[in-house]
Design goal:
The protein is α/β, with parallel strands linked by helices and 287 residues long. The chain has two domains: 5-66, no CATH class; 132-284, Rossmann fold. Helices cover 45% and strands 10% of the residues.
Length: 287
């Protein structure tokens, strides 16, 4: 094993690694996120604007852990990984089970929910199911009301894999944890303003921001097209839809749009639209 390690042009000596081991042992109750911030505070690792270099610090700690030099606290979050699981490949489990699984975390102890989430992820990996020649789509505009499960299932059965969406966005509105240290109101407000999922209920200061939003989501999800599915009378989604769709069409992204009601019981028209859309992507997407 080498006596020194290199990270971002800096040399990490064996004495510094020994210090990191003692520091981790002295903070047994800290999460990985909190540990990196505590280490930055202790060593004065800050950016010119005064912000902590905790992201760089976490990268260093992960490198040393993978090399077997230190042992970090166990990972405490598995829920966001469930959504990332859909990004690299089509969903191994149809999406209509998601509304049943996510609210469980609101009615059972968090430890029990994490245990069940781990079991769920293990089951999806163990039995990926038969691969289908479906198109990968992003559904946009369904944050006002949860679409009926029958509508979600109809879109999937019509030949579409839903690889990103804004269903139940309130359960994942914040993209990072609210800091526990300091003024809780200020921490919550700062996180809400700076670290939230981009959608139509938030103010966008960049005039071209919303036109680029769909393209960014499609690229991140490696999707083939977009379905704008807004609830009837959902003004934020309906008002934003022309800008979002214009941005998608300018980027050459195939898209369709329809409206639904929470009590919708007839899905044949949606099946025909989604099926035709999926077929057109497969037939003409490479043209």
């Amino acid at each position: 094993m080498p006596d020194e390690w290199r990270y971002r042009g800096q040399t990490i000596s064996s004495e510094q690694i020994a210090f990191l081991r003692r520091f981790i042992a002295a903070h047994p109750d800290s999460s990985r996120w909190k540990l990196s911030r505590q280490l930055c505070e202790a060593l004065g690792w800050k950016q010119p604007n005064g912000a902590l270099r905790d992201v760089v610090c976490r990268g260093l700690l992960l490198m040393l852990e993978r090399a077997g030099q230190i042992e970090l606290p166990p990972v405490r979050r598995h829920i966001r990984g469930q959504r990332r699981n859909a990004r690299p490949r089509p969903d191994p489990v149809l999406l209509d089970t998601t509304p049943l699984a996510r609210p469980l975390g609101e009615v059972v102890p968090v430890e029990q929910f994490i245990e069940r989430a781990r079991a769920y992820l293990a089951a999806t990996e163990a039995d990926p199911g038969r691969m289908r020649d479906n198109s990968r789509v992003v559904i946009v505009g369904s944050f006002c009301e949860q679409p009926p499960l029958g509508l979600i299932k109809t879109v999937e059965r019509a030949g579409c894999y839903i690889v990103d969406d804004d269903f139940l966005v309130g359960n994942r509105f914040l993209t990072r944890d609210v800091p526990l240290e300091g003024d809780p109101v200020r921490n919550l407000a700062r996180t809400f303003v700076r670290h939230t999922v981009k959608n139509s209920v938030l103010y966008e200061e960049d005039p071209a921001g919303k036109r680029a939003l769909v393209r960014e989501r499609v690229e991140a999800a490696r999707a083939d097209g977009v379905i704008f599915a807004a609830a009837s009378f959902c003004d934020p989604a309906l008002l934003d839809q022309p800008m979002l769709r214009a941005g998608a069409e300018a980027a050459g992204i195939p898209c369709i749009a329809f409206r639904f009601a929470e009590n919708t019981g007839q899905f044949q028209q949606f099946r025909e639209q989604a099926g035709t859309f999926s077929d057109s992507i497969k037939l003409w997407g490479a043209a």
